Amino acid sequence: MAKADSKLLKKLRAELSKVADSEKAPQMQAYMKSEMPYHGVPSPIFKKVCRALFADTEIPDFESWQNHVLDLWRGAKFREERYGALYLAGMSRAKDYQTIAVMDAYEEMIVTGAWWDYVDDIAIHRVGTVLANDPKPTKRLMLTWSKSADIWKRRTSIICQIGAKEKTDLDFLYKCVESSMDSDEFFLRKAIGWGLRQVAWRDPDEVIRYVKKNRERLSPLSKREALKNVIKAGKIRVVP
């Protein structure tokens, strides 16, 4: 494994420093409630920097790519540098690497990142892709994560199908929700509502049925989030 604070990280830090906004940086840090400081680089400029830098980065194989991603993640001193790791992890050049083999790296990033901006990106865009590519082992892993003491692994298991649309496996979703249904943790309650709301776009009657069946266990927040669009559409008037 290459050492953290690698050449690629130093290049990324240097490029971000060139376009940093010292006035925006503390505002961004405060909004995200982040202990790690920001350079203060707006998203469009950040993406431009990453696109240019990583286009010239040699990535001959899975190990090289994973090492680069983890180097950026582990050595980051500013939050955008970890966003750089997420950007590299999601590049089209890495599409063949999104298999169960990368899940140890994603688990490390989820557990050490431990906040919604990191975790949601990894859960939906990276773990979701691994789930589509390697469904059986990934489902087994997510069912294990759904019972983890780590709330971010639990959240990942619940929202990893957000992008699956009509391919959403409802039985799998409900099993992942089950372990967190009685939790008083905000990020789990929100995740449950979000996961169900995505299903409601295509099958509102099923979500209404599920919420009514579990009305005593689901939190008010989960029910509101799950039925938000259903109520707007006039399918029901109030949250059960």
Tally of DSSP β-strands: 0
Helicity level? 55-70%
Q: Which value, in Å, is the CA radius of gyration? A: 19 Å
How many separate structural domains? Answer: 2
Name of the CATH first level of the largest domain = Mainly Alpha
CATH domain topology of the largest domain: Leucine-rich Repeat Variant
Order of helices and strands: HHHHHHHHHHHHH
Structural class of the helix and strand makeup? mainly alpha
Number of helices: 13
* Bulk shape: globular
Mean pLDDT: 95
Shape-level CATH architecture of the largest domain: Alpha Horseshoe
Describe what this molecule looks like in 3D.
The chain is an all-alpha fold and 240 residues long. The protein has two domains: 97 residues, Leucine-rich Repeat Variant; 143 residues, Leucine-rich Repeat Variant (Alpha Horseshoe). Helix 6 packs antiparallel against helix 7, helix 7 crosses helix 9 and helix 9 packs antiparallel against helix 10. The chain is globular.
